[in-house]
Amino acid sequence: MIYRELKELLERHNQLQVLKWWDELDAAGRQKLAGQIERVDWSLLPLVKGHAVFPKGKVEPIDGLDLAAIAEGRERFRALGLEALRAGKLACVLLAGGQGTRLGSDAPKGTFDIGLTKPLFIFEQLIRNLQEVVRACGVAVPLFIMTSEENDARTQDFFRAHDYFGYPAQAVAFFRQEMAPVVGLDGKLLLSAKDSLALSPNGNGGWYSSLVRAGLAEEAEKRGVTWYNVFAVDNVLQRMADPVFLGATMESGRATGAKFVRKACPEERVGVLCLEDGRPGVIEYYEIGKELSELRDEAGRLVYSFGVTLNYLFRADVLRTISAARLPVHVAKKKVPCLDEAGNLVEPQTENGCKFETLILDMIRCAGSCLPFEVEREKEFAPIKNRTGVDSVDTARELLRKNGVEL
Ligand code: UTP
């Protein structure tokens, strides 16, 4: 795009400020900035003002498998799951494209060292958990790792430097998610450098479309993959490629499965599984409201207590019908480093910008059916979101120790 066209485009969207330092840029800088501007999805920007509130339909509890029901069917589920794993029907997808801002480290979250007397990296612990399944079923489960433009090189280098923590390298592939522009609270595009828009990963809802774009989904499905187990980078206790979970979800005939923990208390900041107008969905903790979050059944148990752990199963045929473009876009206020009026990079102390994200939890609703599957919190839920306090490095260490992991 030549300068005149670029200017016209930006004028139309009232975003000329991003060309403020154009005259200072060399040819490479101009090309970089122009390329980013051309790729902006302009339909996102107005969402800042309207603050997209998603229509919430009639909310009802969803049925799922609790610990007792799982214990009863365990052997059957496990046999079914192991058979599918041996037949190469499952691939794992590790979501590692996030920025981990709450942890306060620039490095990819999975490279964070949680060890005390010796190094223990988050990625390393996840690979160890996966290796347990590989030992049980005798085949290496394909592992796709989603990164972002920001952390891709560092993530790949890290795995190579650590020899994939003993996982067969040929079973691992990396793919990148897309980036979305970041805007100020007034809806204006922000710059992270004179030649670059401020960009952030576009949320974890685009994982399948990015996997398709990378050519990996087609290849995997040709080789017989019919299920994907998708999970977050930060739960160091989670079991992935869990044969019991896989077998139970397959047997249920539902298109997706979601591992959940019982909410510890109504105020816990975790999304809950429910039905919305008859379709499975997740209501976020900030959307549920006091009345529903505190509602109890006759036995005194919370009615909306299936807290999602971000460990899902998706059947591949259904994924192909979920278009990323149809997922709602969420607007999240964040502290975004950006150039000030004088062209200096500033690290804001308060939220100054908005990111646009699609979320994997909305894919559950689109898929139309889901098997909630309970797991024991103490054994499978140790998310690391913060450095200290709730869901932190400290709480995860404590839980790892309880589960016999040496730190
Ligand atoms: P979180 O919602 O915890 O976000 O991601 P985050 O970026 O890791 O952390 P904060 O909010 O900045 O502190 C849940 C999971 O989804 C992945 C993360 O890597 C994590 O595994 N994710 C999130 C992506 O892969 N891409 C994204 O764009 C966002």
Descriptive overview:
The protein has 407 residues and is of the alpha+beta class. It is 31% helix and 20% strand. It is built from 14 helices and 19 strands. The strands form six sheets. The chain has a seven-stranded mixed beta sheet, sandwiched between helices. A three-stranded antiparallel beta sheet has the order 1-12-13. β3, α6 (152-161) and β4 form a beta-alpha-beta unit. α4 (67-86) packs across α9 (243-252). The longest helix is centred in the first third of the chain and has 20 residues, at 67-86. Bound molecules: uridine 5'-triphosphate. Uridine 5'-triphosphate (UTP) is lined by residues 95-102, 109, 146, 177, 201-204, 232-234, 310, 357, 385.
Quick structural overview:
By secondary structure, the chain is α+β, with helices and mostly antiparallel strands.
Helix content: 25-40%
Low-pLDDT runs of 5+ residues are none
Q: Mean pLDDT across all residues, rounded?
A: 94
State the end-to-end CA separation: 54 Å
Enumerate the strands of the largest sheet in spatial order, edge to edge or round the barrel.
4-3-2-10-14-11-19
Q: What small molecules does the structure contain? A: uridine 5'-triphosphate
Computed over alpha carbons, the radius of gyration is: 22 Å
Structural class: alpha+beta
Strand content: 15-25%
> What's the tally of helices?
14
Main sheet, how many strands, which sense, barrel?
7 strands, mixed
* Total DSSP E strands: 19
Shape: globular
Descriptors:
407 residues, alpha+beta, seven-stranded mixed beta sheet, three-stranded antiparallel beta sheet, globular, binds uridine 5'-triphosphate
